Amino acid sequence: MYSVASKFRLSIVLLFVTNIAFGQQLNKYYLSYIEKYHQLAIKQQKKHGIPASIILAQGLLESSAGQSQLSQLSNNHFGIKCNSDWNGETISWDDDERNECFRKYRNVADSYEDHSLFLKNRPRYAFLFQLDKTDYQGWAYGLKKAGYATDPTYAYKLISLIENYNLNRFDKQIFDDNYAERMDIQINTSIPQSIQKVSDYVTHKKLKNNGVPYVMAVPCDTYANIAQEFNLSEETLRSYNEVSATTALQPGEKVYIRPKKNKASKNYPVHVVQAGESMHDIAQFYAIKTEKIYKMNHIPFTEGAQVGQVLKLR
Question: Which run of H or of E encompasses 8?
């Protein structure tokens, strides 16, 4: 059994190891997204001073390359919630809580513009605009520090996307309106021919935990592409893994492709709760349903387990 701290360190190691192992096995949905929206990102960089690479990486991550249900229903590619200053259309979506309010846009271009204004008009992001426009690493760490996302690996994910897909090629200074046209030529020549012909995503090796088949996520995987690989809907795959429609997939995570069990294997009758562990973390680790842990231990669904508590798993 591993503590959350150990698993977190392992996930960071996996992030960099799998970057090397799968560096050339690029996701077709990500390539398509970059081709479709890179000019929007360049326009935002020119207008507002946010690196195009950061804009694209956030768009890819927050919208699962435009494949997430939320992004398709609302054109919201950056996971921005309503907040008190939003007067536009809205959509209710389950995220950290049920029926949370998210912004809804007429089109993706409006989402890109609003994302730029969201960063530009909030004091906590002001320090980012003092960074060099090509300092994508500084922006990635800065966004995490400023609280854009609670995911502890958020900066690493953005940097991984930028470097795997060479997004920083869009961060060069833009001085004239013909730059985007020139960048189209560079796109066609800067991606190796072998990558231009990519027609599918990485084929995942099926493993088993507690008798439940699963795969390990690699950098730039999404629930959408794994679901398609195994002939599932994204909604079904997310339900198997008990995650919301906006939860992003982390490299090194187990992704179950069949429903989890009601109890753990005989080898793991109990679990001692470690600092920082959630009930969902424990459920994913042992391939059992989260609600079953609550019920077996008579814990109200509104509460979590306490550090040091011994949980029954079967």
Answer: helix 4-21
